[in-house]
Structure formats: C-alpha cells, structure tokens
C-alpha cells in the first residue's frame, strides 16, 4: 500500500519534470544529478540483493546436503 503511494507520487513528480523539460524549465544539471543519485541507489540495491542471494544460495546448498545425507541414511537403514 505504501509502495503504491510512493509510486504514484514519484510518477506525478516525473510527469511534472517532463513537462518542465518540454518547456525548457528544468536544468540538465538537475536531471544529471537525479540520474546520478538513482544510479548510486541502484548499485547499492544490487549489491545488497547479490549479498542476500549468496546467503540464501549457501543455506539452500547446505539444506540440500543435509537432506541428501538423511535420504542416504534412511535408505541404508531400511535396506
């Protein structure tokens, strides 16, 4: 719900900036600054995502190893 609100506000602001650009009322420096900020945030988010996925991948691998050990142990017990 909050994300929807933020998306609507962001879209509204970007629509206004686009109108300003069409009438040459916004500086390219301002747009470049915003692009730089967004790029920086995207890089940080990607880094956080990559680190989180590495942790989840490691946990998944270890759980699969544990599961395989248990399957082999149970199969050998029953044989």
Helical/strand content category: mainly alpha
Q: What percent strand?
A: under 5%
Taking the alpha carbons of the first and last residues, their distance comes to 55 Å
Oligomeric composition of the shown chains: single chain
The biggest beta sheet reads: none
Order of helices and strands: HH
Number of helices: 2
In the predicted model, the low-confidence regions spanning at least 5 consecutive residues are none
What value does the Rg take, in angstroms? 25 Å
Q: Portion of residues in helices?
A: over 70%
Shape: rod-shaped
Average pLDDT taken over every residue: 92
Give the number of DSSP strands: 0
Question: Which helices and strands, and how do they pair?
Answer:
Layout lengths: L1 H21 L5 H51 L1
Keywords:
91% helix, 79 residues, single chain, 2 helices, mainly alpha
Provide a compact summary of the structure.
Helix content is 91%, strand content 0%. The protein is built from two helices and no strands.
């Amino acid at each position: 719900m909050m994300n929807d609100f933020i998306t609507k506000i962001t879209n509204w602001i970007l629509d206004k900036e686009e109108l300003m650009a069409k009438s040459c009322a916004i500086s390219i420096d301002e747009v470049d600054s915003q692009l730089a900020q967004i790029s920086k945030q995207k890089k940080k988010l990607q880094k956080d995502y990559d680190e989180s996925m590495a942790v989840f991948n490691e946990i998944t691998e270890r759980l699969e190893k544990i599961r395989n050990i248990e399957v082999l142990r149970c199969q050998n017990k029953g044989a």
